[in-house]
Amino acid sequence: MISQLPDGARRIVELGGGTGVFTRALLDHGVAPSDLLVIELNKELHKLLARRFPEVHVERGDARDIQTVIRSSGFGHGPPVDAIISGLGLLSMTRTVQRAILEAAFSVLGPDGRFIQFTYGPVSPVARDLLSDIGLNFRRASVAWLNVPPATVYVFTRNKSRGIHAVRAEPRI
Questions:
Q1: Structure pTM?
Q2: To which H or E segment does residue 143 belong?
Q3: What's the average model confidence in pLDDT over 142-165?
């Protein structure tokens, strides 16, 4: 997960902080606590994260409301987010929820921002047609074979090019 951060990434949001495994890895990697925002929906896990990482912005909220959480936490006073690290269970979510989370995430990411997703499935947790519809692409970055069950890391980014739409030409006479 950490190796997929863009070069020079500074401002990071973590979605679904859980028990803080990725939070600790980000801090150990050199991310400044003031440049890290962790969003956790579960009340008990939120309390645990806030106790373990008092120097980090730890907020209780829904990933679909990332813009609101960023504004209300004070984390929004700065440049755009460079990367989002996600441990959310996208595989078990509806397409509607997946769309809402990804659209919200990319609304706060800078132009070259990345959404880095940890998942237990052998394929992308988000269908290609949904990604295409919202202008994103993905790559399978790595597999954690020693994890039980094995886990895969996917990196989602904005499409760099736009599709060209066909235009019906007037018939030649």
A1: 0.88
A2: strand 136-144
A3: 79
